[in-house]
Specification:
With 220 residues, the chain is mainly α. 56% of the residues lie in helices and 0% in strands. It has nine helices and no strands. It is elongated.
Length: 220
């Protein structure tokens, strides 16, 4: 369901419109009785009408920082990657920038008012090392194998994915066949790119969250 359709349904409920009245109104406004058949412009027309021509509220932002500038800075990509890795390992429940900002500002950099002002390497390092520490407690081994690890084993994506794999209760088969299948490569493929590891970590993360939700349901 699109955001606009969801917003229309909310307004229908607020106004107490039964289905017949609601569909008559849709017919009058657009000539169609279902929002699913409408163009986005037609849906917006319906939404404005139901809201009594009130100004449209600020659209939801996926980073959660409504009313603020988007996070930026040269250290942000690494912080964000580690934060999302925490999400994909089930350590945190909110992967948005607003949650990362709250973690960084509240616990690591309380003297800084905005993540955009994180310019010093030592400030960024305090957040990055805190995130890496959280991941290590959930099985991520940051230290390279010795004496001569293969190149893929040095990748952060590999290390995080291995920790995810170890946490999965419902894992079956071996690690690498799953990885190569997810990135659509032959079984012998090991030159996994950072982008491909993201695909793998996101998939493992979805499985871990599904298992966590199932366990929580059984525990109720």
């Amino acid at each position: 369901m699109s955001k606009t359709i969801a917003a229309i349904k909310i307004e229908q409920k607020k106004l107490g419109l039964d289905d017949d009245t609601y569909r008559l109104k849709l017919q009058h406004l657009t000539g169609k009785t279902s929002t699913k058949d409408m163009t986005e412009a037609e849906r917006q027309k319906v939404l404005v009408s139901l809201r009594g021509n009130q100004p449209k509220p600020v659209a939801f932002r996926h980073d959660g920082r409504d009313g603020k500038h988007r996070l930026s800075g040269k250290y942000l990509p690494k912080m964000r990657a580690l934060w999302i890795a925490c999400y994909n390992l089930g350590i945190i429940e909110d992967k948005r920038d607003v949650a990362l900002e709250a973690f960084a500002m509240g616990r690591q950099l309380p003297e800084i008012s905005d993540m955009r002002f994180v310019h010093k390497p030592e400030d960024a390092a305090s957040v990055i090392e805190a995130l890496k520490g959280m991941l290590a407690r959930y099985g991520v081994v940051w230290k390279d194998e010795t004496p001569c690890p293969p190149d893929y084993a040095k990748s952060h994506g590999y290390k995080i994915a291995r920790a995810q794999w170890s946490c999965l209760r419902a894992r079956s088969g071996d690690f690498w066949p799953i990885v190569t299948e997810l990135v659509n490569q032959p079984p012998s493929y090991r030159d996994v790119t950072d982008a491909e590891w993201i695909t793998v970590m996101n998939w493992f993360g979805a499985q871990l969250r599904r298992e966590k939700a199932a366990l929580a349901k059984v525990g109720k």
